[in-house]
Amino acid sequence: MSVPPSLAPFLPGGRPEPRASGGHRPRQVHSPRVRHLAHDRGVHLAGLTGTGPRGRVTTDDVNRAASMAESLPLASPVAAPGAVRARYTAVTEVEVTRLTTSPDLLACLVESSVRAVRSVRAATAEVVRTTVSVHGPPGGAPRTVVDAHDLGVQGIQRVLGASDASLNGSEGQGSWADLSVQDLRGTGVLFDVPVLEDGVVVALSFGDVVDRPTVVELPDGGRGIGIGSFVHLALTVDEHLAGASAARLLARVRQRLEAHESGRSS
Amino acid sequence: MAQLSYRDAVARGIAQEMRRDERVVVVGEDIAGAGGVFKTTVGLLDEFGPKRVIDTPISEQAILGAATGAAMTGLRPVAEIMFSDFFAVCWDIVVNQIAKTRYMTAGQVTMPLVIKTGNGGGLRFGAQHSQSIENWAMAIPGLKVVTPSTAEDVIGLMAAAIRDDDPVIFCEHKGLYAAKGEVPDGEIVDTLGTARIRRPGHDATILALGMMVPRALAAAEDLATRGIDAEVIDVRSLVPLDTRTILDSVARTGRLFTVEENPQLLGWGAEIASLVADEAFWDLDGPVQRITTPHIPLPSADSLEDLVMPSAESVARTVEKALQS
Question: Are residues B25 and B149 in the same domain?
Fold first, then answer.
């Protein structure tokens, strides 16, 4: 058994064995100072490539990353030079039996996604404008919903349905968005793994709504088999979105969508 | 401004206070006619006479017993324990009387007593005459503990210790007695509980005490040639401790090293490491590292004593290795 050198005086006789040299560190270790500074400056350490000894992240690395972030649009990820941005994707299935009959499942999804992203940002005090870029259905031009957080489902629906699809703000198409929603309905595809374009921190994709047998609650309180409509949601998140994991974020989207489905969303 | 040796500074500091306050007396073995076995009291007998500069028998208990009674009854004695190792034979009076009298009399009896002592190793005196005992003393509530590293500090801290109403253990490093330094003319009075930044730096804080201060400074100069800018702090006073200077420095540099002559267990650096863990954890950019002697008695052999005591080389090597790992 290896003994840390600092414990040597407490041991009866003999020189302690040298510490086992593992050859590699199992995980990146950040000093308290670096962790504290990163927290203060809102920098995520996981994606930083350290320039210190053995690749340790130094305070200079954190300050550099924070300075870079300050010079970028607010929603853009914080990344040090050479940092590999990790992206995580989660997939789920949601029942939208009632929503499919409503005019706009897309608007509900956009609204649910915006709320999910905003809830994460509020928790980290990183509240910024949320702009959504909506792609699809295939063949259509991408549309932009500026300041989507100021809009409800109907407002979003109105923007998406307008001929100038960016009427809720001065920025038009081509401006950066931090959330993208891809509508693949009508393609026969259940979902696509969303790709994060530059500046986009969360991307959601959904495909065909399919009907299939499902367990339903009967009026007498019992359970039976009915027909439900389901959609698959795939969500990719950039690791630099503070406090977010793809699964957690997608769970919030789903939760909100279920609220719309059950009519408890207001 | 004049060059003065550390040993001459001891006598100058005591003389300064003896001229100012006739209650100040000096007691110890061979401190009068002989001027002290380390020549730190030369000239005091001539200037102040045998009533204020008193030779004693070879009994540490007698020296401290007499000094304690004198302090309790209105004098301000400076007692010498020739080698700090000999505190071991008078510990009862130090721990149970000197340290506790002011407390146990609810402040009615003060203990304005300085116990000066030749401390530390590096002089081939062997295991029983080379110890650094600051950590023995700082474990006892009621004692103040001071270890100057320069001639000027010897005078200023001696004056502060003599003027203090509490007992002060004044550790003179034997290895520094011959060292000379610039000392201003006139009265010098310093403040207990203050550290000094001897060399400012950005990359690491090195705390040192007594003879480890010049070694830490040499290490810092060596490190500077390799791009490491170390700050060296002379702790000077362990009780009271200048925590502000230490914590501020750690906040700047993020790395702390202590250079201690004492064995590793329960050295003063462990107490400071604990303090920094409590108060400055989020400033730390790496573990606190202590550079001490191993947990062994100091050897007599030249080569072995040199090997076990922290050296400029071992300090520089430790700091550089830590900053690169």
Answer: yes
